[in-house]
Amino acid sequence: MGLLSNAAALLGKEVRTEFRSRELLSTTIVFVLIVVVLFSFTFDPTTNESHRFGPGLLWLAFLFAASLMLQPCFLREQTNDTLSALRLAVSDPFAIFLAKIGANTLFLLLTELLMLPVFAALFNVNFRGQLPGILLTFLLGSLGISTAGTALAAISAQARMRELLLPLLLLPLLAPILVASTEVTVGLMSADPVMQWKGIGFLAVFDVVFLTALWLFGEYLLEE
Amino acid sequence: MAKRVVLCAAAVLLVIAAAYASFFIAPEERTMGDLQRIFYFHVSCAWAGLTAFLIGFASNLLYVWKRNEKYDWLGVTCAEVGVAFTTIVLISGPIWAKPAWGIYWTWDARLTSTFVLWLLYISYLLLRTLVEEPNRRALLSALFGIFAFIDVPIVFGAIRWWRTQHPAPVIMGGPNSGLAPGMRPTFYFAVLAMHLFMWFLISERYALEKLRGDVEVLRREAETS
Amino acid sequence: MASPAECKVGLRFEKVDKRYGTVYALRNLTLTIAPGECVALAGRNGSGKTTLLRIAANLTRPTRGSLSFSESTENQNPHTGFVAHATMVYDELTAEENLLFFAKLLGVTKRKERVAELLFEVGLDERKDSLVRTFSRGMRQRVAIARALLANPSLLLFDEPATGLDPEATTWLIGRLRTLRDSGCTIVMSLHGESEVARLATRAVRLEAGSVVADTRAGTTFQSVLSFTGG
């Protein structure tokens, strides 16, 4: 069984499992909602301020939510040691990572898309016509968050204080994603929407770099 | 033993000499006067910190490949030394910013990147305290160290591109751009001195880690016999 | 999918150490298992049996020394079936879903039939649509065994196989192991002492403090290797 077919099978299982209970998605969506509402409440921004700071707060909320949402992806595999079963069944351990990255990206994307209209309403932001650009930003940003996050989740699952450790390791590492995604989103949501291809390129480079790093070192992350 | 004393003496002497040069030999800066002299320490520490992290990165890679504990010892050593130098950078920044600008902190590219760098390696050190089994700890921290170092240029890039709307401290001028020729000798001397000092710190810290490793081996042998 | 008789797998542990901090789980372990042997691994808790099995399953690397496989036919990877203390199946999936999933990963041909066949064999075909979370320990063990047998393994590693099984399931397991053994599958199973399962073995090895201390190949009787008072 090749790498891609293994990854596809695993991805299918992850998605199917999640959609059965929807516990991860529902808690993540509610968390992002709470954070966004609290930000709006705390800062009470004017329209100008909303346009300037809104996207940053949105991505910050996504980042916080992700650092919590990514926890279970390897912790779940520890309960019955299913990780060992996967390692035995799969020809290339990278398939396990690809699948989990795919699943996590999908869940993050869903959360972000559901949050978009809420955010637009709360922060008085108009993004009509810029949807393709926003989707692309969300996709590349979420992929970066998931890639780094899944790798670090594999590390933190083997340490103590893992609930605090993952955000601790992840948030500084993802600072560039935060900056780049925010800038691109600000450009798309401003009164004169502009597409910053530099930012998109940057996000893509981040994704490629970390996917490559994971491809090179992933099997060591799963070692016992 | 003699080697260590020589290294220590040389490092300390060179740092003192660099300090002397910064205060008395380097020309006075036009706008800021004597306050600018902190630049020699600030930037040379930043470079020494980065060098330490670079050596750490190499030893992380070597550990994952060879699994020799020496590389783990070197890894944690370089991380700690790097964090020490980076802390100096973060402290010396506000020290000149306050009298120069009236504010302690400015989110300029250099300082922001350094702060994120500092946070990354603090996380590395924290991770080490949270994994008990030595081989596991060595492998996991080496892997995180690799990811962290890969991120460093990306962090610097992102912040340079998008976060430099704050007026960069013009006084600094930047190490390679606009550094007055009269300042260059002192600057390079300071960089050299800091690197020697870094080497001294690394060898001492490494020796300590090696001692710990040797104690472990002895304890193991004692338990099994 | 080649049947076990065509792929005979031998194992060779060469001076293997496995260290966790200051604790040696395995110490200078040298052991050669011939293709087709059915080995009973005896020893107290903490003697290294589980570690040995995990290394054989390629889940853990030795700290020092090596493990090599020998196959008496050209075959890339010995299919290994592993049954451990943990069930290694997903609680939130049904028995059938679990097996179909692993069968897919392993590239088993004619998945649905194979899974149905195994579910029937282990006596779970009536509960195939129930979530594993609702199963008893014995039922979970049966799913675990089914999972291990999915790809017709040529090497079977069992960590205390009969744990949690009722007498009927134990009888089935013994019969199944006997068939596998007779068809050439190499089996290594860790046990606590003498038992019905142990009688299937063609060889017994005793571990203590991470090393081999007794081996029926060296002439010691099965009884003394397996019993606690043996030496």
What does this structure look like?
The complex is a heterotrimer of chains A (224), B (225) and C (231). Chain A is built from ten helices and no strands. Chain A is mainly α and 224 residues long. Chain A has one domain. The model of chain A has no long low-confidence stretch (mean pLDDT 92). In chain A, helix 3 packs antiparallel against helix 6. In chain B, helix 2 packs antiparallel against helix 3. Chain B is globular. The two termini of chain B are 32 Å apart. Chain C is an alpha/beta fold. Chain C has two domains: 153 residues, P-loop containing nucleotide triphosphate hydrolases (Rossmann fold), CATH 3.40.50; 64 residues, no CATH class. A six-stranded mixed beta sheet of chain C has the order 5-6-7-3-8-9, sandwiched between helices. A three-stranded antiparallel beta sheet of chain C has the order 2-1-4, covered by helices on one side. Classes of the chains: A mainly alpha (224), B mainly alpha (225), C alpha/beta (231). Chains A and B meet through helix 7, helix 8, helix 9 and helix 10 of A and helix 4 and helix 5 of B.
What's the quick description here?
Chain A is mainly alpha-helical and 224 residues long. Chain A has ten helices and no strands.
